[in-house]
Design goal:
It is built from six helices and six strands. It is of the alpha/beta class. 39% of the residues are buried. It has a single domain, classed as Rossmann fold (3-Layer(aba) Sandwich), CATH 3.40.50.1240.
């Protein structure tokens, strides 16, 4: 049975002076990609897609190389556009996400509303599922857009799901209904 794995990238090297969309992986993040490759092998992943952002591409590339698979970079799989938003403190960061999820039609963080990010990401995921023609696939992306898709498809409050996604982690869904079993898989 085909499955869709939505994967939150590995831990980036956080540089506050740089837009998060340009971050690459930290050394610990690169090391954790071995666990991800093992998980992909267990899950029977045959195709790996990735956001164009460096931290997601690097996560996908490291896992794919261990399995001899190709990475298929795709527009539309990126995080919500956070242009002009820098990381200030954890408290401010959490408040921003509450506002983002609580008022999804409003542009409250960056230049894209939650509704717009969801529509863009959902369309890109559907295209990858269609292209994969019944194969198990992994999409390496970002926590916020993964949260938007999974919470809306399964009638869940988004913030608790967003908080539960580690670096890296993944959720496995039915690729056609997007039904989720409620488990977040992450390295222990």
């Amino acid at each position: 049975m085909a499955r869709l794995l939505l994967v939150k990238h590995a831990h980036p090297q956080m540089l506050p002076e740089m837009n998060a969309q340009r971050w690459t992986l930290s050394e610990a993040g690169r090391e954790s990609c071995g666990w991800l490759a093992e998980a992909f092998a267990r899950e029977g992943v045959r195709r790996i897609y990735a956001s164009l952002e460096p931290k997601a591409l690097e996560t996908a590339a490291l896992a794919a190389a261990a399995l001899g698979l190709e990475v298929r970079p795709r527009a539309g799989l990126g995080e919500n556009d956070r242009t002009g938003v820098s990381f200030a403190s954890q408290e401010i960061h959490v408040r921003r996400f509450h506002a983002f999820f609580d008022e999804p039609a409003k542009v409250s963080m960056g230049t894209e509303s939650a509704n717009a990010a969801h529509a863009r990401f959902s369309a890109a995921v559907r295209a990858a599922v269609e292209e994969s023609a019944g194969e198990t696939l992994a999409i390496v992306a970002h926590g916020t857009v993964i949260t938007l898709l999974v919470s809306r498809a399964n009638g869940l409050a988004p913030f608790p799901l967003w908080e539960s996604l580690g670096l890296p982690s993944y959720v496995a869904l039915d690729p056609y209904t997007l039904a989720w079993d409620g488990r977040v898989q992450e390295r222990s």
